[in-house]
Structure formats: structure tokens, C-alpha cells
Amino acid sequence: MRFFEMLVWPGGGTIGLFLWVMSVGTVAVIIESLLRVRRSNILPDVITDQVRGMFENKQFREAIDQVSEGEDMLSHVLHAGLSEAARGYSAMERAMEDAADERRAHLLRRVEWLNLIGNVSPMLGLLGTVWGMILAFGTLERTGIPDASELAGSISTALVTTLLGLAIAIPSLAAYGTLRNRIDGLSSETMLLSQELLAMFKPGRKGEREGKSSKKE
Questions:
Q1: The total number of structural domains that make up the chain
Q2: Would 215 be classed as within a structural domain?
């Protein structure tokens, strides 16, 4: 209980209190990012099945309308590609790549806060450490032989802020690395799936389909 009280207040001083507030914000950012960076929000299976079925039935206008209303990355990428269908498959592929990069950058900007917090919080902890040591040496200068409890309070401020800074930085950077890898993986998977769905627009595919139809006849 004494250790917990020292961590909360007044062990870390004003800087410690600020680090506690930052820790609450960090948890909120991590939870929000985990909810946002999910497969169902980036690469929903229902959109994949719907668009594939529309393409098989040659319902291209319906497919464009479907993906234009979606907020997920797959819909955004497919809509960008289909919007360039009149210019050929190369233009469609470039548009899809640009759209995927744009959505990936947007997702990374949201989780970049975790990287910022993970780098700033140890610096704040170090600031509290330096401030605590200044107070301790100031006490030594004033009294020569200081009261042990007064000196220990200044040193505890120095150590508690360091602990709080590291306690915030470690999960922040771990979550950032995990979310960044997940975003990269889902973005690559989205691009590959989009290319697969729009492969029928590649030059030569129409001739292949017509050739297969004539053989069946």
C-alpha cells in the first residue's frame, strides 16, 4: 500500500501526476487503435464475397455502387481501381496502389501517437529524476546534514518518475510495433485481393474467356 501511495501522489510530484494522466491517454489510444485496426474493418469478407459475385454476374455498375459506400480499405481500393477502368488496367493498378498507400498512411498516423508517447514518456521520467536529484542536493546544500526523511522524499521523486516513464513507454512501443505490423500485413493483403478481383480487366483475359466459351460450344 505504501508503494502504491508513493506511485500515485506525492511520490512522483507534478511530473509523476502528468505521467499518470498520460498513461490513461495511452490506454485509450491503444484500445481505440485495436478496435480500428481489425480485419473486419479493413478487409471484410462480406464485401469480398459480394463484389466477387457481382463481377461473376457482370454487374459492374452495382459493384461500383457497393464499394463507393464502404468505409473499409478494400472498398476504397476497389472503387479507386474501378473508377479508372476506362483508362486500362495499368491505370487501375496505379489508382489501387495510391488508394492503398493513402489508407495505410491514414491508419499509421492514428497509431503514431503511441510511438510519440513511447519516446516522450521516458524523457519526462528522466526530467523528474533530474528534478528529484536537484531537490536532494539542494537539501544537502542547505542543511549539511539533512533529515533522512526529507532527503529520501526527493530521491523517491527521482526514482518514481523514472519508473512511471518506463511503465508507459514499454507497452506503448510494444503496441505501436504490433499495430504497425498488422496494418502493413492487412494493407498488402488488401492490395493482393484487389488485384485478384480486378484481374478480369487485364489485357488478354477477355480473349481467354471467349476462347474457353467457344471450346465448350
A1: 1
A2: no
- Show pLDDT as tens, one digit a residue, over the chain (217 residues): 455 555 555 556 777 788 888 888 899 999 999 999 998 889 888 888 888 888 888 888 888 888 888 888 999 999 998 888 888 888 888 999 999 999 999 999 989 999 999 999 999 888 888 887 777 777 666 666 666 666 666 676 677 888 888 989 999 999 999 999 999 999 999 999 988 888 877 776 544 444 444 444 4
Q: 213 lies in a domain?
A: no
In a domain, 216, yes or no: no
Q: Is residue 178 part of a domain?
A: yes
Kindly report the pTM of this predicted structure.
Answer: 0.77
Task: Retrieve residue 74's grid coordinates.
Answer: 478494400
